[in-house]
Amino acid sequence: MKLVKLFDDYLDMAAAAQNMTREEYTAYYLSESKKNEIKFNGKKVDLNTLEVDGVDSNDYPDFVDSYITYAEYSNGKKLTDDELDDFTDQFPDIAQELAMETFQ
């Protein structure tokens, strides 16, 4: 039961970070549209603009040290360094996924 509670808490936290309900977050996360954009700070980030660094093959397959170094909102505005740090903190799985793709 503890694992279910942890996942339940994670859904609440992730949804709140995106200013969404749990249902909205789950639907968005499972949708195909998430492959191109994700909501951050109330704005959409174009996932096609993301660049990652901190990729170390010795850290395979976790890549916990990877981080986003560049991203743009869907309106073309670049994320600041502080926003990139916050984005990486909120979405470490995206940085790790991009790091994994560098080896494919």
Describe the 3D structure.
The protein is of the alpha+beta class and 104 residues long. It folds into two domains: 1-30; 35-104, no CATH class. Helix content is 43%, strand content 21%. Strands 1-2-3 form a three-stranded antiparallel sheet. Helix 1 packs across helix 2 and helix 3 (81-90) crosses helix 4. The longest helix is centred in the first third of the chain and has 16 residues, at 2-17. The model has no long low-confidence stretch (mean pLDDT 83).
Task: Give a short summary of the structure.
The chain has 104 residues and is an alpha+beta fold. Helix content is 43%, strand content 21%.
